[in-house]
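Collaborator request, handled under Task 6.
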Amino acid sequence: MDMTTIKPIHRGLKVFLNTQISLDKGRSYQRLFAHILDTCGVVSSVRGNLFKSWFDSMLKHGNFMVNCPVPAGHYFLQDWKLDSQLVPHYLLPGDYCITAHFFFGKHKSKQEDFFLDLEVYALLKAT
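Structure tokens returned to the collaborator:
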């Protein structure tokens, strides 16, 4: 992933994470769980949780900032793989789609200010 921001990213950026699994080999997906997270809160938190652990593992393969505001500039993520220790044990092997909708304001309202959408497709294999 390569990304260039033209403006600083200030506090208030949120992300709606939607995790889905395909039960019919990628034809359709069913939601497992969804969360709205304060992006700056997750990034700058000293407290550990699943999302903070994922972000910390990404720091080893990119140049993301660990506090807000984030200056305008070029950011990247290269050769990152989610370590098997960071995969929750309750997730079944299968095809997954994780969408991340970044925004300011209130989700799905007239006050929502779109920032970025990402889709990640992953195959979780049994070990």
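The cover message to the collaborator said: "The beta strands are 2-5, 14-22, 29-38, 73-76, 94-104, 113-124. Residues 50-59 form the longest helix (10 residues). Please let us know whether this matches your experimental observations."
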